[in-house]
Every structure is written in structure tokens, then in C-alpha cells.
Design brief:
Blueprint lengths: L2 H4 L3 E6 L1 H9 L3 E4 L3 H13 L4 E6 L8 H9 L3 E6 L11 H10 L2
Parallel strand pairs: 1-2, 1-3, 3-4
Helix pairs in contact: 3-4
């Protein structure tokens, strides 16, 4: 395995048309407005092939109900998962970290 293969990290964005174009311009692979089957297909491939990836999803993708997304969140490691708010509802962005911080601070 060459150095470039060993350190290859896929950069993938999953979300709406409005955000997909911007992420594509900066070199991300994109999956635009997938259904739960397409989302699970991508996640399954990442898990099975043990690929390293930076996976950025639009927060609305959480509503697809993917069990594989939950698995990736709990595993950590090879796949770094981050969320971004929707362009249409940026004030409604809440990360899982928000809830954990509220518990710790009593807020």
C-alpha cells in the first residue's frame, strides 16, 4: 500500500441541493437529498470497506432514520461525522453536543 493510499480520506457531503453545490466546488463527493436506502448504501460501503472519511451531513438528514448513521456516531475513529445547519433554517441547528452540555451544566 503506498503512502497516498494509506492516508486517503474521503470527503463526503450529504444534504440539500442548496448546500451540495458549494461542497462539490471545494472537492467533496456529494450525495444530494438521498432517501434512507441511498444513505444506508453509502454508509454501509464506508463501514464494509473500512474507509477513512470526513462525512458532513446537513442536519435534516438525521430525519432519514438511518441505523448505520447511529452506528458511525457511536464507533468514532475512521469516520469523522459532522453536521451543518440547513440554509433555510440556520437558527434551528442543534447538535448532539448541545444536549450533553446542557446536562453537564444543568441548563
Amino acid at each position: 500500500m503506498s503512502d497516498t493510499t494509506a492516508h486517503r480520506v474521503r470527503k463526503i457531503f450529504v444534504g440539500s441541493h442548496a448546500l451540495t453545490d458549494g461542497f462539490r466546488l471545494i472537492g467533496f463527493e456529494t450525495l444530494t437529498e438521498p432517501d434512507s436506502g441511498k444513505m444506508d448504501e453509502l454508509l454501509s460501503q464506508l463501514l464494509q470497506e473500512r474507509e477513512r472519511a470526513l462525512l458532513i451531513i446537513e442536519q435534516s438528514m438525521n430525519q432519514l432514520g438511518s441505523k448505520l448513521l447511529d452506528q458511525i456516531r457511536s464507533e468514532g475513529g475512521r469516520i469523522v461525522l459532522s453536521e451543518v445547519p440547513s440554509l433555510h433554517d440556520p437558527e434551528e441547528f442543534h447538535s448532539d453536543l448541545d444536549g450533553q452540555l446542557k446536562k453537564l451544566t444543568g441548563g
